[in-house]
Write a structure and sequence with these properties.
The chain has two domains: 144 residues, 3-Layer(aba) Sandwich (Rossmann fold), CATH 3.40.50; 65 residues, no CATH class. It starts with a strand and ends in a 19-residue tail after the last strand. With 275 residues, it is of the alpha/beta class. Helix content is 31%, strand content 25%. A hairpin with a 2-residue loop joins strand 1 and strand 2. This is ABC transporter. It is a peripheral membrane protein.
């Protein structure tokens, strides 16, 4: 069974369809990455999967059941979303932010429990933020701040996590830091992770499953080797490139041709033997 599934899903803003009659399966326990040009509908699709955008038509299934039939709290216990560029109230500490992930479990009958405390502790430990627990979120570096928001989603205790461009505005070292963290969570806890990424090479390095969004639909999906081709990049990004192999990880690597310079001779591809 897929973690998330869409059936003939149509999404729109006003009279303009963004996604049209889409059938999509998100594999359970894997990392899925949405790629596509700006305005292609990647973030819109991600938001709809979290029930933040009501479909114009079609349906979304969470664990095989219509997501529309569940209460907001029930969905929040099974699926967490981290939107692009979240902001915290001034002065809110890392610990206080992580605790917000436990709000779906609170009601007038059940107050803060030992389980809540343990889940927050585990989330801070997983993101290596325990030493910064009492620091205000707005005083942290970009990478630390993003880890604090991820700690909140982890404290929510869901099997599925959706992230909209989690590496945006981060420098290269912090991008790798965040993606390594998500990869480790998937490896050790089999969390289903779905995210939007702009960097094709990082998408190929970390994803098990890639979904290319273009022209109101999905034009390709599968493993990085299956999806990332010169034809796909030309169709989706209107760019010529060469696809070679990442010398460290053996995953596909996109080398774009500059539009303002004469293209060089193609680089001879070398086979990388992984030890």
């Amino acid at each position: 069974m897929s973690a998330l599934e869409t059936r003939q899903l149509t999404l729109s803003y006003g009279d303009r369809n963004i996604i049209e009659a889409l059938d999509l399966h998100i594999p359970r326990g894997k990392i899925t990455v949405f790629i596509g040009s700006n305005g292609s509908g990647k973030s819109t699709l991600l938001r709809s999967l979290a029930r933040l955008l009501k479909p114009k038509d079609g349906s979304i299934l969470l664990d095989g059941q219509s997501i529309a039939k569940h209460s907001t709290k029930e969905v929040a216990k099974r699926l967490a979303i981290l939107p692009q560029g979240p902001t915290a109230p001034e002065g809110l500490t890392v610990l206080q932010l992580a605790k917000q992930g436990r709000y779906p479990y609170q009601n007038w009958l059940q107050q803060w429990s030992e389980e809540d405390e343990e889940m927050v502790k585990k989330a801070l430990e997983a993101t290596q933020l325990m030493p910064l627990a009492d620091r205000p979120v707005d005083s942290l570096s970009g990478g630390q701040r993003q880890r604090a928001w991820i700690a909140m989603t982890l404290a929510q205790g869901t099997e599925t996590i959706l992230l909209d461009e989690p590496t945006t505005y981060l420098d290269m070292s912090h991008q790798i830091e965040i993606l390594d963290l998500l990869f480790e969570l998937n490896e050790t806890e089999q969390r289903t992770i779905v995210m939007v990424l702009h960097d094709l090479n990082l998408a190929c390095r970390y994803a098990h499953h890639i979904v290319a969004v273009h022209g109101q639909s999905v034009v390709a999906e599968g493993t990085p080797d299956e999806v990332l081709t010169t034809d796909l990049v030309r169709t989706v990004f209107h760019m010529d490139c060469q696809i070679t192999q990442d010398p460290l990880y053996g995953t596909p690597m996109c080398i774009p041709y500059s539009k303002s310079r004469i293209a060089p001779q193609p680089i001879e591809q070398k086979t990388v033997v992984m030890s």
